[in-house]
What does this fold into?
Amino acid sequence: MTRVANTGRHESASRIAGFWRTALPLQGKADPLRAILSPALSPVAPERAEAAGKAPYPARQVLVSAVVFALAFAAATHPDLFDRPVTVLINRLAGHSDLFDRIVNVIYWYPTFTGAPLMALVWACWFEDEDFERRSRIMLGTLAAAGAGFVSRLLQHALPTHPRPYYDAAIQFRVPLGQDQLLNTWHSFPSDHVTVFAGLVAVLFVARSRLAVPMLIYTAVMELARTYMGAHYPSDLIGGAALAFICVWAVQMPQIVAGGGRIVAWERNHRPAFYATAFFLSYQVAMLFTELRSAGSLLMHQVLQR
It folds into this structure.
């Protein structure tokens, strides 16, 4: 049985190898299979994980993230156990310092301090080397982070959770100074902002960036502004981060990474078109597609008025 299993794994590796050598001609450069067929980017190789009776590394991370998401959803449906006490504790800081409230307000409204630094580091990881497998993982993870943000917005409308703290009469929310704009009134679980930005943090982990852990801490602290300003409960933030990690790790499966190599090959052969497209998309992701969403809402409003 062991010989049959090993033969199957070697055949799978050979098929992936054939794809990469056909789709990604390197003309004498390093073989991009080096990382795919070795545990270089995974702390636990699939073979060793199977021998220990565990799931391969990406699958395990997806499972752990799914458990965290389920726990966050449970907390969102029982706000008196976790969300409201923590939100009340944070909200006690509001209204005491005009300067502090306005600093938090700026962090809340402008992705320049959250999404832009994360996207800049993602690009730094991209240009660290030209390894096809690593670049495929980074590209797929970034696209998955953007897609996860869209999923989180759908879940806000679909899941029966809670309104935003700003509108929760049970906690008598104290509005911070400078918070003059009303928030939308649909449910707030999970946070779509945190989903996208946590997804970019997950990409840094996938790329094995030395700044992944510091940026995880930085993002967690910065996104607390969403609770401070009354937009989200803590479970919304945790659920959004968990959803992001589910999506980013899900696209790190070897078969998906191999497929992403076709787009990476396009970068090698059509760099002007690739980087023009990548710049536009990465800007939109870092800014949470704010301008496109605003333009779409304006056009929709005009159409409905006719």
Residues 127 and 164 are 40 Å apart (CA to CA). The mean pLDDT is 83. Residues 58-305 form one domain. DSSP finds 15 helices and no strands in the chain.
